[in-house]
């Protein structure tokens, strides 16, 4: 038996490992995402922990695919991704893993009801990034579902874990969660247009040739994102109060990025990644708090 830092009560030894795993997940989000990290801080504490645990696993998988060590070849990265998926699936059954990030995720998955129907498509999309360098609309839709929409659905499970009739609420809100995840991913495709093409050799955006980008196609992608954001905004007021402001903040941050991308061009975006300054992010978060989680321009009940 031992004491957790900052606590006086005696706790079982495994609780310390749980706490270290969750602290590791929190470190991942602090290190890799200022926007997502800002929004997550507006969640209720228990939900914040679960969302950080989800994000950490997603980020580790993404790093295997996109940021390999110099000595790693394609086979090494593929094997490492397979091992991470196997560890995750096993931990979701047993509730424990020697991998701290997997351990934290598995605890959340078991607690909130995330199952392999959401986890497997995510790893499928990560695996596609190892070999697929260009997409058509069908393959891109499958990729976006696995890489982003299921992450939105995982977070939705965390938001609703303590709600009565959680499954029925999940079914009602799932389309909005998927549209928000899809919007985030498409916005990042536009923001990362240069890095994806020049650094990773990938072409996600159907109809946009990086060597001679079509500005009309660029505008069509932004129109598509606006439709996703509008659909997601309609669902946000129906989220629990414990997560509504945080999701509204994330929505509005990405809506601001979309507006800035409209002021840019495909050629400019290829040269320089569009960002929202920290002061702008803080203002957006404050606005979401003041509106009690009602997205900018949205109409509807906030109950």
UniProtKB/TrEMBL annotation:
Tell me the Pfam families matching this sequence. Answer: SQS_PSY
What the entry lists under InterPro entries is as follows: Isoprenoid_synthase_dom_sf, Squ/phyt_synthse, Trans_IPPS_bact-type
Q: Which SUPFAM superfamilies does the UniProt entry name for this protein?
A: Terpenoid synthases (SSF48576)
Which regions form coiled coils? none
Its name, as the record gives it, is Squalene/phytoene synthase family protein
- Organism listed in the record: Gordonia westfalica
The taxonomic lineage of its organism, from the top, reads: Bacteria, Bacillati, Actinomycetota, Actinomycetes, Mycobacteriales
């Amino acid at each position: 038996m031992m004491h957790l830092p900052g606590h006086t009560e005696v706790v079982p030894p495994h609780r310390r490992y749980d706490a270290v795993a969750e602290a590791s997940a929190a470190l991942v989000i602090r290190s890799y995402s200022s926007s997502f990290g800002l929004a997550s801080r507006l969640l209720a504490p228990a939900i914040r922990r679960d969302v950080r645990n989800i994000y950490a696993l997603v980020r580790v998988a993404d790093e295997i695919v996109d940021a390999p060590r110099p000595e790693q070849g394609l086979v090494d990265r593929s094997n490492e991704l397979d091992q991470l998926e196997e560890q995750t699936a096993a931990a979701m059954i047993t509730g424990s893993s020697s991998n701290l990030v997997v351990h934290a995720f598995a605890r959340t998955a078991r607690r909130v009801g995330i199952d392999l129907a959401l986890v497997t498509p995510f790893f499928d999309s990560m695996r596609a990034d190892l070999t697929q360098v260009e997409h058509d609309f069908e393959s891109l839709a499958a990729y976006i579902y696995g890489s982003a929409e299921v992450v939105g659905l995982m977070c939705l499970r965390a938001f609703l874990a303590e709600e009565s009739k959680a499954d029925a609420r999940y079914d009602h809100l799932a389309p909005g969660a998927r549209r928000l995840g899809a919007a985030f991913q498409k916005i990042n495709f536009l923001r990362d247009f240069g890095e994806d093409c020049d650094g990773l050799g990938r072409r996600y955006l159907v109809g946009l040739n990086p060597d001679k980008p079509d500005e009309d196609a660029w505008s069509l992608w932004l129109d598509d994102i606006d439709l996703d954001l509008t659909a997601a905004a309609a669902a946000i007021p129906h989220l629990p109060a414990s997560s509504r402001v945080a999701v509204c903040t994330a929505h509005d941050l990405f809506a601001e990025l979309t507006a800035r991308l409209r002021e840019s061009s495909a050629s400019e975006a290829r040269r320089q990644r569009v960002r929202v300054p920290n002061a702008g992010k803080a203002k957006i978060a404050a606005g979401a708090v003041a509106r009690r989680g009602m997205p900018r321009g949205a109409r509807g009940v906030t109950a």
